[in-house]
Write a structure and sequence with these properties.
- It contains eleven helices and nine strands.
- It is of the alpha/beta class.
- It has one domain: TIM Barrel, CATH 3.20.20.220.
- β3, α4 and β4 form a beta-alpha-beta unit.
- α7 packs parallel to α10.
- It catalyses: (6S)-5-methyl-5,6,7,8-tetrahydrofolate + NAD(+) = (6R)-5,10-methylene-5,6,7,8-tetrahydrofolate + NADH + H(+).
- Pathway: One-carbon metabolism; tetrahydrofolate interconversion; Amino-acid biosynthesis; L-methionine biosynthesis via de novo pathway.
- InterPro entries: FAD-linked_oxidoreductase-like (IPR029041), Mehydrof_redctse-like (IPR003171).
- Belongs to the methylenetetrahydrofolate reductase family.
């Protein structure tokens, strides 16, 4: 029998190169304020598990209309103290008066939380209360924050367009306004098609934007819930993911493994498209985010 020639192994496989780099792609993890003592225990475990791989720190969300303002502050301070990592506190313009927003910012600064994600915010779905007279847009909030302290300000970006924007170019113009007002970084709404992020980077460059634009990565667990969230936000849902998780339903024992593998593939492609870092929407859970970090080369400490 004729011997088959030996096929050389690839030396530039992206995941291997990332692993060999020892976690050189910065990671941050988004958390939300817990609503119960059980939730708080879950949050603490997640922070403890992810602290050693959170090279870019954590962020803590604020509910629609500023509804978790106190919880956001308490959680941000607790996470910063517990993890010894920088924390980015979300601060919304909608739902808070100007004084309330700036009072919250002063509280963060006094507590040593010097990173803020400045957002317009969403309207609460159930409240009947009128909107307080506050900052109308995130741009105004950024300008006000810049005047009171030298915060590191991040803003939101939408690779597939904010649902309320008329066009993607108009949305990118708005992003540029927020950056020119004093923000230095942007966190992206998650995408399920990493190519959309790559195209977005190109469009931003065409608009003269050159700051770090960090993609959001949602672990692909609980597919039906995540799919509904994506549809509500106008996020494109690739057919291959629908097909993958339809197969997972036939063999539930495989679901967690497929979710982790697909999440790593998403991260790999985002990095290939030029992601300078990755912001992981952890949903206060640690297993898949930690598995991702390990596969990107982050070692136990």
């Amino acid at each position: 029998m004729k011997r088959q020639p030996i096929v050389p192994q690839p030396t530039e496989a992206l995941l291997k190169r990332l692993f060999d780099s020892g976690g050189s792609v910065p990671l941050s993890f988004e958390l939300f304020p817990p609503r119960s003592q059980v939730g708080r225990a879950t949050l603490y475990e997640t922070v403890d598990r992810l602290a050693t791989v959170a090279s870019n720190g954590f962020s803590v969300t604020m509910g629609a209309g500023g509804t978790t303002r106190t919880g956001t502050y308490e959680t941000a301070v607790e996470v910063a103290e517990r993890s010894q990592r920088p924390v980015t506190a979300h601060l919304t313009a909608w739902g808070l008066s100007c004084d309330q927003a700036l009072e919250a910012a002063e509280g963060y600064w006094a507590a040593g939380v010097t990173r803020i994600l400045a957002l317009r915010g969403d309207r609460p779905r159930t409240t009947q209360m009128p909107k307080p007279s506050g900052f109308a847009h995130a741009t105004e909030l950024v300008e006000a924050l810049r005047k009171i302290h030298p915060f590191e300000i991040t803003v939101a970006a939408y690779p597939e367009k904010h649902p309320e924007a008329e066009t993607l170019d108009a949305d990118i113009d708005h992003l540029k306004e927020k950056l020119e007002a004093g923000a230095s970084t942007a966190f992206c709404q998650f995408v399920l098609d990493p190519a959309a992020y790559g195209r977005f980077l190109d469009r931003c460059a065409d608009h003269g934007i050159d700051v770090p634009i960090i993609p959001g990565l949602m672990p692909l667990e609980g597919w039906e819930r995540l799919r509904g969230f994506a549809r509500a936000n106008g996020t494109n849902i690739p057919n291959w993911l629908d097909q993958l998780f339809a197969e997972a339903e036939k063999t539930p024992e495989l679901s967690a493994h497929l979710a982790t593998a697909a999440t790593v593939e998403q991260a790999r492609r985002l990095i290939a498209y030029g992601a300078p870092a990755i912001h992981v929407y952890s949903m206060n859970r640690w297993p898949t985010p930690l598995a991702l970090a390990r596969l990107l080369g982050y070692a136990s400490q």
